[in-house]
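Continuing the series of single-chain predictions for the mutant panel. This is the parent chain; the variants come on the following pages.
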Amino acid sequence: MIRILRWGLPVLLAAAGVVFLLLGGEYNGGIGVMLLGIALIVWIFNGMARLSVISRGDREREQAAREQYSRTGRWPGDADEER
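Parent structure:
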């Protein structure tokens, strides 16, 4: 369902916009441009939502690393160096 929303809706809106542009006329052209703009907005919004979900995982990993540093005094992945 998400894939349909993410890709299908913008493609459907853009295709309808192109059809209205090809029909010609001032009214149809305006509707076509509007539909193309809406398709672009939906595509951008979906991209931003996807980036938000991806960055949430990064924030969770960073928080876990900070908690480990607070407990042990070392960052995860640091080599144990003996001095």
